[in-house]
Design goal:
alpha+beta, Ybab, Chain: A, rod-shaped
Length: 100
């Protein structure tokens, strides 16, 4: 019984280490999305943190507040969707039986 508990504990530690490694890998990934015709450029990492937002005012000289807000929301949501896809792929490949 003690050996089974020890094995389970070792597996839990290995899983925790791999999760920490995965978080570091995701934090290092940079994903870029654009909204509008390049008016908004958003850079996020794989942890869904916004790293940079660029507003290209040349492309939209008289951008109205509502349009800017809409484009920012769209860019952020696209960035989140993209980071979820990347994170899902990383988790799938990390924990699939063929990766062990």
């Amino acid at each position: 019984m003690d050996q089974n508990f020890g094995n389970l504990f070792d597996q839990a530690l290995k899983l925790r280490e791999r999760i920490d490694e995965l978080k570091m890998e995701l934090a290092s990934k940079k994903l870029q999305v654009t909204a509008g015709d390049g008016e908004i450029i958003l850079v996020m990492n794989g942890l869904q943190e916004v790293l940079d937002v660029t507003v290209n005012m040349e492309g939209i000289p008289e951008l109205q507040k509502n349009r800017l807000e809409t484009l920012l929301k769209r860019a952020i949501n696209q960035g989140i969707a993209k980071t979820r896809d990347v994170a899902g792929q990383e988790v799938f490949f990390t924990f699939s039986p063929s990766s062990e």
